[in-house]
Amino acid sequence: MASGQLTKAEIENLDTGKSVVCMFNPKEYTLSRSNNWTDKTSKGRDVPELEFGGGAPANLTLQLLFDTYESGGDVSKITQRLWEMMKIVQSRTNPATKIGEPPHCQFKWGSVWAFEAVIVSISQKFTLFAADGTPLRAILDVTFKQIADQDKYPRQNPTSGGNPGEHVRMIREGETLPYIAYEEYGDSTVWRHLADTNSIRDPRRLRPGDMLLITPLQ
User: Mind listing the pLDDT tens digit of every residue in the chain (218 residues)?
Assistant: First the structure.
């Protein structure tokens, strides 16, 4: 399948300067944030007064795919770099508790925006294995918690590189080109655009885990 020249998203360990470059850019991500409000006792009123207690840090949740099928290498050696960002490092000590903490990190995608945070959870699922059991494909659900206020926030449908509207989507079990065309464009009849973009000769032979380049319709 064809692939566009897309800017790669990456997660940088701000303590070591080392980065994990995403093999495939996330199709989407979720940014959530809440404010703290306290109900004040208001006798004789239907609706109590609210007292603002300050803002809470934002959470960034995304799914990442790593695949070493072509090279045959152990994919967990790549994803381990993310797990290491959850381990305590003595070089970063909380001044109040005098206890070491995991490193700060930054999710960044080109020049669009950056999110400085700590990783609060990782869930890893292996979906493809070599004959000897070596894991070749992993899907990670990662949640970051904000530690620094940001001036820029992500757009709802992020783009990559110099082609607005382009992104990469992973094919899931049971999906067809018409179904994907309906989800991406709202019209199942434009599936041939996906086939032409990705040089797919037989649309009936989609393989779960493969990546599709989604480009805007002409």
Answer: 444 446 788 999 988 888 999 888 888 888 898 888 888 776 767 777 888 877 788 899 999 999 999 888 999 999 999 999 999 987 787 777 778 899 999 998 876 567 889 999 999 999 999 999 999 999 999 999 998 765 544 444 444 444 555 777 778 888 889 888 888 888 888 999 999 888 888 888 888 877 788 888 87
Interstrand relation of 29-32 and 89-93 (parallel, antiparallel or unpaired): unpaired
Q: Distance from CA of residue 156 to its chain's centroid?
A: 13
Count of Cβ atoms closer than 10 Å to residue 123 Cβ? 10
Distance between CA atoms of 175 and 182, rounded to whole angstroms?
A: 11
CA atoms within 13 A on the CB side of 93: 7
Enter the tokens of residue 193. 């655009």
